[in-house]
Design brief:
Blueprint lengths: L3 E4 L2 E3 L5 E7 L3 H4 L2 E6 L6 E6 L5 E3 L7 E6 L4 E6 L8 E7 L10 E5 L2
Parallel strand pairs: 2-10
Antiparallel strand pairs: 1-3, 3-8, 4-5, 4-9, 5-6, 7-8, 9-10
Length: about 110
């Protein structure tokens, strides 16, 4: 069973940056389209970024130009660099395949507040 372990979240002021990491067991990262999802309080989980074959990337309009997804196949890890953070980015962030079919990890909490 593949496990996903997210890390790197925390409390940051508006305009700040964070880098999230998602370590996956096995070689899932190099085989499938991988994505970062987030779930804000009281809202549904949404996909914010994905990395496809050839390392092509796509972003939700709300994060385009501020977030960058990448992956390191050798480390079986997916990253999300988040810059110019806004309070509306506050959420628990998860990684999974796109579309998702793995059990969700525990996520990593991001709070953007002054």
């Amino acid at each position: 069973q593949v496990q996903l372990v997210e890390s790197g979240g925390g409390l940051v002021q508006p305009g700040g940056s964070l880098r999230l990491s998602c370590a996956a067991s096995g070689s899932i990262v190099s085989i499938y389209t991988m994505g970062w999802y987030r779930q804000a309080p009281g809202k549904q989980r949404e996909l914010v970024a994905r990395v496809r074959g050839g390392d092509n990337t796509d972003y939700a309009d709300s994060v385009k130009g501020r977030f960058t997804i990448s992956r390191d196949n050798a480390k079986s890890t997916v990253y999300l660099q988040m810059n110019s953070l806004k309070p509306e980015d506050t959420a628990v962030y998860y990684c999974n395949t796109v579309p998702y079919f793995l059990d969700w990890g525990q996520g990593t909490e991001v709070t953007v507040s002054s």
